[in-house]
Write a structure and sequence with these properties.
The chain is of the alpha+beta class. It has helices spanning 13-34, 42-57, 59-76, 89-139, 159-165, 169-172, 183-197, 245-268, 288-291, 301-306, 313-326, 371-433, 439-467, 480-494, 514-531, 589-599, and strands at 144-148, 154-157, 203-211, 217-228, 234-243, 270-276, 281-285, 298-300, 330-336, 344-354, 360-369, 476-479, 500-504, 509-512, 538-547, 550-557, 604-609, 613-618. It has 16 helices and 18 strands. The strands form four sheets. It has a six-stranded antiparallel β-sheet. It has a five-stranded antiparallel β-sheet with strand order 2-1-5-4-3, with helices on both faces. The protein has a five-stranded mixed β-sheet with strand order 13-15-16-18-17.
Length: 630
């Protein structure tokens, strides 16, 4: 086998010629050494050498050995050497010619045999490679493949098919494809197979369901081809399956989305469209023509313009042209008459695709019925106009009433001063004109003077409170830190016997009315000073912080505090949360402070706990409504 499969071309020519010369010389020597050269068989011995050289080196090397052997036969095997070994030249010619022709046939036959064997071996290798490629393609295909008999039993099946249905090859050996085909799809498959068996076709492709070993359903595309014998009888089936479960799920999701989209469009009165620029044709999508009550699913842009309200026609053309010419966004509202005689408002929006030259090729957009919204806007506009007029009228009435109330309050407070002065004067005159009055009567007169004095203070507070609501607000940069420091120093100087620790955070700045802020801080710091009067280690702190872009200011103390359950009365005029014998006061300071804050557009809140102090926080700019916090 190795000799037959020898390839002469594997060795270089010089090596093959050298081996041929050596083999030919060796056999010539052996012929002389074993038997006299004059005996017969001289040509036969050298023929063997030529055959061996042809097997080793090919046709040309075999002929080289033949020619070399002829030289040995004619000139070197018989003495005298280098002389012709034949007496008769004619005999020598015919013997050499016959030997040469014989060797050509023998060497040629050997070369032809080698060539045929080489071709046969190449064909066998090619067939083996093709067979292996076929097996590799079958086994490693990305799709499931199988060969089955006509009765459904398996001839071979690849691993992808096994993985698809969840069974191993061993488990499938004694079964057929009917075992895991969905019952609802089995008859369809059998019907198509019957047509192949009857010879009415060579293959079929269907979508069917398999039942996985774990119980879930798998959608596949099944392709079956019938292989027949030379006589045309059914032989076996080639089966190819591809898993399309993901595609089926996406199709189901798409159908669900389309149904939901259509329902949403019906509820919203919205429709979608596709525009083809070359044909200037609109095509409605997802049954949008039913939503819009259009007579057809396709219509031209001119037909749409014919349905446009005359007052909106130029507006629509201008926007449509700007979109096509300049690429401007197309999002407009105008009136259309889709069916009947009623004009309805629609919002139309579109996006367009352009070619490489910038020319519009197609468009996609939607139409929304906004008639109800437009009617509501018109109604709201009418209501707003009416409401604005009524507000102006009511504002004027309230301003007049407020001015009248302020004037009345001021007049009442001012007119009350005269009787109080008379009461106080007569009480003092009565005491001075009657020195013989007893002690009890003098106490009564003292109570009258004290009451009239308190009444005067209340009138002053009322006048001050009314003044906080009048006049123009003059905003300017105000340094609350410097203002609070000065007022606290003045309070400390007024009561040097008290030891109060106070702290003012630097850099508390605001744009506000300086005079009003002065009064605001005076009320808050005076309260803090007053309500820490019974606290052993009194502390007062003025601070600030930024919150949501707004500066908040706080005045806190550790004094008497108050019950937050009664905090609703805190900013009401003449309402007090402590008894008069505990802390003096009129109950007008916090009401004044809050009115100042409100005039600035801010808010004020209080946090406190009985016996542990209170904190008043306020802003001097609008920042949303705030309430008291417990």
């Amino acid at each position: 086998m190795r000799l037959a499969s020898w390839e002469p071309s594997r060795r270089p020519m010089w090596q093959r010629l050298l081996v041929a010369a050596l083999v030919t010389a060796l056999l010539a020597w052996m012929r002389v050494a074993l038997a006299p050269a004059e005996s017969g068989g001289r040509f036969i011995t050298l023929s063997l050498a030529a055959a061996v050289c042809a097997l080793y080196g090919g046709f040309r090397v075999g002929m080289f050995s033949t020619l070399l052997g002829m030289l040995f036969i004619n000139f070197l095997l018989v003495k005298p050497y280098f002389s012709l070994a034949f007496d008769n030249p004619v005999e020598a010619f015919w013997l050499n010619l016959w030997h040469l022709l014989t060797q050509v046939v023998v060497v040629g036959a050997i070369a032809l045999m080698q060539r045929q064997y080489r071709m046969l071996r190449e064909s066998m290798n090619l067939a083996q490679r093709s067979h292996q490629q076929m097996l590799d393609t079958f086994e490693h295909s990305a799709t499931g493949m199988a060969h089955t008999r006509v009765d459904g039993t398996w001839i071979r099946i690849n691993q992808k098919y096994c993985d698809l249905i969840g069974y191993s090859r061993t488990e499938l050996q004694d079964s057929d494809w009917r075992r895991f085909t969905h019952p609802e799809d089995l008859q369809l498959d059998l019907d198509h197979l019957a047509t192949l068996i009857r010879g009415e076709g060579d293959s079929y492709t269907i979508e069917k369901r398999y039942i996985h070993r774990q119980g879930h359903t798998i959608w596949v595309v099944l392709s079956v081809s019938m292989m027949r014998t030379a006589e045309g009888a059914p032989d076996y089936l080639v089966v190819v399956v591809q898993d399309i479960s993901q595609r089926k799920r996406m199709e189901e999701q798409l159908r669900t989305t389309e149904r939901l989209l259509f329902q949403a469009q019906e509820l919203a009165g919205m429709a979608s469209w596709l525009y083809d620029a070359p044909t200037r044709t609109f095509t409605t999508l997802s049954n949008s023509d039913e939503v819009l009550s259009l007579p057809a699913q396709r219509f031209t842009d001119q037909e749409m313009l014919d349905r446009t309200h005359p007052d909106d026609l130029e507006y629509v053309k201008a926007n449509w042209g700007a979109t096509f010419r300049d690429g401007a966004p197309y999002n407009i509202e105008y009136r259309l008459r889709m069916s009947g005689d009623d004009w309805r408002w629609y919002q139309v929006r579109g996006e367009f695709e352009r070619d490489e030259r910038g020319k519009v090729r197609s468009g996609l957009g939607c139409v929304l019925d906004i008639t109800e919204r437009k009617l509501n806007e018109l109604h709201i506009h009418e209501l707003n106009a009416s409401l604005e007029q009524r507000i102006q009228e009511r504002t004027q009435e309230l301003k007049a009433a407020y001015d009248e109330l302020e004037s009345y309050s001021y007049a009442v407070a001012h007119d009350l001063r005269s009787p109080l002065r008379i009461i106080n004067g007569f009480a003092q005159a009565l005491e001075e004109d009657n020195p013989e009055l007893d002690t009890e009567s003098r106490k009564h007169l003292e109570r009258i003077r004290e009451a009239s004095k308190k009444m005067g203070e209340l009138i002053d507070g009322l006048l001050h409170l009314s003044q906080m609501a009048r006049g123009e607000l003059q905003r300017e940069p105000v340094d609350l830190s410097r203002m609070a420091t000065r007022q606290l120093r003045e309070l400390a100087a007024s009561e040097p016997e008290r030891n109060v620790q106070w702290e003012v955070e630097p850099g508390l700045l605001a744009m506000a009315d300086g005079a009003l802020v002065e009064a605001l801080l005076q009320n808050l710091l005076h309260n803090a000073w007053k309500y820490t009067g019974q606290t052993a280690q009194a502390r007062i702190r003025v601070s600030g912080r930024w919150h949501n872009g707004v500066r908040e200011f706080s005045v806190s103390d550790n004094g008497a505090g108050f019950d937050m359950a009664r905090a609703s009365k805190l900013f009401q005029p003449f309402q007090r949360l402590h008894m008069p014998n505990e802390f003096k006061g009129l109950g007008i300071g916090l009401a004044t402070a809050r009115r100042i804050v409100v005039r600035h557009g801010g808010w004020m809140q209080a946090q406190a706990q009985t016996g542990q102090g209170a904190t008043f926080t306020f802003t001097l700019q609008p920042s949303g409504e705030r309430y008291l916090e417990g």
